[in-house]
Design brief:
mainly beta; 2 helices; 13 strands; 233 residues
Length: 233
Amino acid sequence: MKTWATRLLPMMAVIGAATILPPIAQAANLRSPQIAFSSASLQSYFGTVGQSINTTADQIDTQVMTTSVSGNAAFTLMAEFTPNSNANEVGIYNANDPSATPTLFPLLPPSAGPDWYVTVHFGGGNLVVNLFDNTAAFQSTVTYTGVNQSAFGFYIKGPSGTFYSQDSRNGGSAQVLTYAGTGSSYGTLWECFEESAYDSGTSDFDDAIINLQSVVTTPTRSGTWGEVKAGYR
């Protein structure tokens, strides 16, 4: 049984003084079949934040993202239900990287406290990440090079290993589930991470719950990791 260490955050998107981020597209297909998991905790969380999401029936079939035309986006860590909340790192990687261990671009470090979030800007192969604390006070900035804004995935890295939003990089197992926001969160995406190797009876996908603003889903093509690599040779 997990220790409940919750980080509940208001949704924030601050890029410049008064930039308003457009919503993401809501046209992604559902996963088929849907991933079976221990869903009670995640389902309860969505209920507390006013989301009309069925966690076992509304999973989006997308494992790769792209930015909107502005190149701006905001990623907010909404909650973590895990004793490893101070050890897990969340970030992105190039989805078309042919390596089995792609270069990681950290966004939310293990040291990030409750209510912390990042704003990011993609442009010209660069990624500029600005980190803010729970009072919206600026903490740090970092610029990464060689980032593919048209095809990136998310990862979680912690004591149990590194897992990716592309199932093929996890031996075919899902480690990140994506949902479309509803109600006041319409136009956003929810990324829900499992920090340990997938098991239908114990995985709960609530180890990090991230809200994404101004990213667009990319259709998923089923296949093995070997087939994915071959496509980029």
